[in-house]
Design a protein that fits this description.
Length: 146
């Protein structure tokens, strides 16, 4: 096989709000950390171990603006993209390295606003009577109960 593949798929939680950077010409990028978790049992101690891996995500232009508008810290998101490593010179002259996920596709799974809205159930609706009386079988013969 002569081809190569650089594809990443992640489902995780935002570790911070989207930070936007704007450039001349109207282009922009958004950056945010994404946490993914793994849980396993240590076989020798039978202890439950939780580990978190942090990923630096980068979204561009319109996608970045959408992420900035709708995502906040703690939201769950599915992303697809590719791994990109880069380096730069720091102010002190040292060379810095980073590995990022260049996001090409994303789907919002849960947003904090959505989660909070679901917790606030309207109290204006009266409770429905859901009691079932097995003795009351007075259904017409042609009426199915399902």
């Amino acid at each position: 096989m002569s081809g190569t593949l650089n594809k990443v798929m992640l489902i995780g939680y935002l570790g911070d709000d989207v930070k936007m950077h704007y450039f001349d010409g109207g282009n922009c990028i958004g950056r945010f950390p994404l946490a993914t978790n793994e849980t396993y049992i240590n076989k020798t101690t039978n202890e439950k171990i939780n580990t978190t891996e942090w990923h630096n995500l980068v979204v561009r232009n319109k996608a970045a603006e959408i992420c900035e508008k709708y995502l906040t810290k703690g939201d769950k998101i599915y992303v697809e993209g590719r791994i990109k490593s880069r380096q730069w010179q720091a102010e002190d002259g040292s060379t810095k390295y980073t590995t990022e996920i260049q996001v090409t596709e994303f789907t919002f799974l849960t947003t904090k606003k959505e989660t909070e809205a679901n917790r606030q159930v309207p109290a204006s609706e009266p409770a429905k009577n859901t009691n079932f009386d097995p003795q009351n079988t007075s259904l017409p013969e042609n009426d199915l109960p399902f």
